[in-house]
Amino acid sequence: MPLEGTDMAEFTMELNDEQKEVRDWLHGFAADVIRPAAAEWDEREETPWPVIQEAAKVGIYSLDFYAQQYFDPTGLGIPMAMEELFWGDAGIALSIVGTGLAAVGVLANGTEEQIGTWIPQMYGDANDVKVAAFCSSEPDAGSDVASMRTRAVYDEAKDEWVINGTKTWATNGGIANVHVVVAVVDAELGSKGHASFIIPPGTEGLSQGQKFKKHGIRASHTAEVVLDNVRVPGSCLLGGKEKLDERLARAREKAKQGGERVKNAAMATFEASRPAVGAMAVGTARAAYEVALDYAKTREQFGRPVIDNQGVAFQLADMRTSIDAARLLVWRASWMAVNGKPFTAAEGSMSKLFASETAKKVTAQAIQILGGNGYTREYPVERMHRDAAIYTIFEGTSEIQRLVIARTLSGMTIR
Ligand SMILES: Cc1cc2nc3c(=O)[nH]c(=O)nc-3n(C[C@H](O)[C@H](O)[C@H](O)COP(=O)(O)OP(=O)(O)OC[C@H]3O[C@@H](n4cnc5c(N)ncnc54)[C@H](O)[C@@H]3O)c2cc1C
Which of 67-81, 158-172, 174-188, 378-392 has the lowest mean pLDDT? Predict the structure, then answer.
């Protein structure tokens, strides 16, 4: 089924006039505001609040903007936006879109009331911007989401949920106004026994643990989130108790018929969000490729531009070919997700796998083409290469994407 509120659209490889306008506007923001701030916030390793505020002022940091792209029936809205912002800088762009990733969890699973109550608090307003965090990963539950330990127990007398556990690697964890936390409500059901909860601002018992010092995307805050007897009202369970009870009953029934099917179905739900990460990777790869192309045309050795050597020119040809191929896979998967096409070959995972590996490779090639300069912080490609390494890790590592693709193609439980 297409996303609610969208019409079916034919797959197209061309942006329409309105999308081109949005793309140019985003590109202008990325070039004029994000790119010039990139090196500074990478060194500071802090959330770039002033840049987020700028984005809020012009309307890029807002639910309206995000929802408009998310519900674009062509499916190209989100990948186009991600590519442009991450072309500017990956760390800053993640600080800008991180809230949107948490908000989508609420948009997709929340009731009308939950959407109306919590999403505005995730963003704040242009004069007082806020961010949100999505907390699923745990120290012992990264790829293996089913081994999650954070527990949510229902206290019927008070109509409250009591949540205990430790989350890790949470983007905006601890600095978020609103946290969305995934917790186990029925341990027997693996990942089907999970539910998502809103943790409202200022809730007692939620604290930030360690803040990580990272290899790349250093302008994006990543931290542990500790939940110590956190109590939230029943209304904070995303989707509501009735829907959860129905879902658990269905999952118990299915589990009786065959546990593996339950596990695989849970993995498939990520297919729809993975193209967005692929698009981020395309943005970083394209940025590095452009720097390398410019450099190769102007840097002279042996009395001619270095691009005059096939060894350099062919690398650039391969870089551009891979980037375009990655974008096509991302656009296809994103169109499929929006238009409710079944991912019969795990096309979402395919797009994320290919685009993220492309970004890692292309940014490394860009360093090589810039030679010594590429290896210094005087030029942006070394930062882009550090940033690119995240794409093969978060939202499922490359190995997990391959596992999902192989399982989908074969219908077998490949380990
Ligand atoms: C900067 C950053 C931001 C993040 N943001 C968030 C966030 O906002 N919210 C959130 O919930 N999480 C977030 N994450 C967590 C991220 O999704 C996990 O790091 C990722 O899922 C991998 O889990 P792991 O790190 O525990 O690696 P592990 O699962 O321990 O994997 C270690 C290695 O083993 C491989 N491996 C594991 N299982 C298999 C298998 N079955 N077959 C083959 N290979 C396998 C992996 O591919 C990897 O190479 C973030 C992580 C980082 C680094």
Answer: 67-81
Catalytic residues: 395
Locate 371 and state its tokens: 């030679």
Sketch the domain layout of the chain as residue ranges: 17-129, 133-257, 265-410
Locate 278 and state its tokens.
């692929």
User: How far apart are the CA of 130 and the centre of ligand 1, in A?
Assistant: 26
Q: Is the pLDDT of residue 262 over 80?
A: no
Query: Which tens digit of pLDDT belongs to each residue from 128-147?
Result: 999 999 999 999 999 999 99
Q: CA 293: distance to chain centroid?
A: 28
Q: CB neighbours (10 Å) of residue 251?
A: 20
State which of 122, 277, 393, 414 you would mutate to test the pocket of ligand 1, scoring each by most atoms of that ligand within 8 A of its C-beta: 393
Q: Which is the CATH superfamily of the domain at 17-129?
A: Acyl-CoA dehydrogenase/oxidase, N-terminal domain (1.10.540.10)
Ligand 1 atom 26: residue of nearest CA: 142
Task: Report helix, strand and coil shares of the chain as percent, to nearest 5.
Answer: 60, 15, 25
Report whether residue 391 contacts ligand 1, using a CB cutoff of 6 Å.
no
Instruction: CATH number for 133-257: choose from 2.40.110.10, 3.40.50.170, 3.30.70.790, 2.40.50.140.
Output: 2.40.110.10
Cα 304 to its chain centre, rounded Å, is 42
Question: What atom of ligand 1 comes closest to residue 182's alpha carbon?
Answer: 11
| Protein residue whose Cα sits closest to atom 12 of ligand 1 | 137
CATH 3.40.120.10 for domain 265-410, yes or no, is no
